[in-house]
Amino acid sequence: MSxxxxxxxxxxxxxxxxxxxxxxxxVLAIRSDExxxxxxxxxxxxxxxxxxxxxxxxxxxxxxxxxxSAEEFAAAQASVGASGEDIGSALAGASTISQExxxxxxxxTVEAAVVRMFSWxxxxxxxxxxxxxxxxxxxxxxxxxxxxxxxAMEGLRVQDESGRDLDATEATGPDPVHEVAATPVSPxxxxxxxxxxxxxxxxxxxxxxxxxxxxLHPQIHVxxxxxxxxxxxxxxxxxxxxxxxxxxPSAPGDPLxxxxxxxxxxxxxxxxxxxxxxxWLYEEGTQHLSAAGECDGxxxxxxxxxxxxxxxxxxxEDLARKLRAGLSPPRSEGAASVTPDGAASAASALSSAxxxxxxxxxxxxxxxxxxxxxxxxxxxFAAERFSRVALFMVRDDLVVGIAQSGLERAGGxxxxxxxxxxxxxxxxAWLGGVIAGAVAARVHAIQPDDLPLVERLGDRAPDEAYxxxxxxxxxxVALLYGDNLPEGRPIDDTSAIEVVLHHAGLAxxxxxxxxxxxxxxxxxxxxxxxxxxxxERA
Length: 538
What we know:
Elements: E1 2-6, H1 12-22, E2 26-32, E3 35-42, E4 45-51, H2 58-62, H3 70-80, H4 87-94, H5 99-117, E5 124-129, E6 146-147, H6 148-172, E7 196-199, H7 203-213, E8 220-223, H8 226-238, E9 244-247, H9 262-272, E10 277-283, E11 297-301, H10 313-326, E12 338-339, E13 342-343, H11 346-349, H12 352-366, H13 371-383, E14 388-395, E15 398-405, H14 415-418, E16 422-423, H15 429-437, E17 441-443, H16 451-454, E18 465-472, E19 475-483, H17 495-519
Parallel strand pairs: 7-8, 7-9, 9-10, 10-11
Antiparallel strand pairs: 1-5, 2-3, 2-5, 3-4, 4-6, 12-13, 14-15, 14-19, 15-16, 17-18, 18-19
Helix pairs in contact: 1-6, 1-17, 3-4, 5-6, 12-17, 13-17
């Protein structure tokens, strides 16, 4: 039986830890745009691992690394024949390389393969629970398995270091398409510049943006696809940081990620984090097909025929100045301010105490191992920000109440009464929209078709209410409701709530995988090969 998921929802470190703690045997396959790899587990320990394009067997390791000659390896392989003897032992007896060195190279190869997979920021995984070999399994086996939790820590360390290197590389970028003369700006050292995420199908335009803005924003991430840009944006939101986002109207949607088109993509971003600053990125000379809408403004980049054209140098310089100035619009009432040094961040919007509380809550969610631990933490955190909170489960085409805090302040039910509330998603456009779009929504005026929900939660309709999803395994499994009755004060920024709900979904994913690993009976027959004997192929 296979367990399938996304690396965006469950990290490789989490997967390794869960398999290690449950002491399961099987093969983990990972597929990413950056590569493919497989890891073999026996009793929760890593016994083998390979990545596509890397060493596939002991011959690749020893001959490819010039540790032994091709002739020596072939002779050792011929001497082993069908006897079942370890080819490493035969090589150690017939060449200058020692058995200890061969074992060390095996271990280093497996470690390097696992660590390389940590650099893949997105992708899909599947874990097949089984204890016997199959054709195609990695052939480099270790006599003694590696501790998966050790590999997880090592992989995270390398990932952190490579991430800093990547940010520096992205900020510098390749040689610009055309040299840009821009007026230097001295950033305020007290305000760190916001990172930029730019999404545009035109790679040359992205390179130009990095060249123009590199001295203002040390971290610039460019993507040709919206779904890849969304991964980076979510990483910043999970760290309570807000990037400055530039989105081309020509950026295609991604049905697999639920992004219908670029307008839907922007709408999702702004609903998830209203304080995040998002700009339309238009090509020079094209008509603005729509107003800024939910975006905070519009900026322009060169057309393809201008890039790389020496005669367009003055036009490029003018566009560069406009782009830098366009990312610093005057502050409008109720909007997050943007300075030449970057967008306002979630960290600066929150007090130090609130930020500390957010970090504490996400850490506690990361350590939670069951739904019974996760959901009470969500209720508790939400109750610190809303006067009234209700939590619903989404199952069998029904939305069912499970827990609340403060509903009685405006005539609402207690926990027992809330558990009797069951609604169909289609009974409310607000309710159905949040579930279908998997995006939080704040309403300022309760519509008639939303009354079936609010009437079950109190004796009056709030002036403003909030509804947000919790996702697990790629679907909405719970909903958080919040309002400020009876006082009726405006709802504050909900960025911190969205961060907590994101971590809650990841915690539920971990809990589900742990339960599946515990409950699934592994009935595969034992290995035919002795467990401590490495298997190689020529």
